[in-house]
Amino acid sequence: MSRDLGNATGTPAPPPAQRVVRPAWRDPRLWLGVLLVAGSVVVGARLLAAADDTVAVWAVRAERGAGTPLRTDDLVVERVRFTDAAAQERYFTAERPVPADLVLVRAVGAGELLARSAVGPAAAEPVLRVPLEVDPNRVPPDVGAGSVVDVWVSDGPGRSAGAGAGSDGGGPALSEVTVVAAPSYEDTFGVTGARQLVVAVDDDRAVAFERLLGGLQDPVIRILQRS
Question: What is the DSSP letter of 118?
Answer without folding.
Answer: G
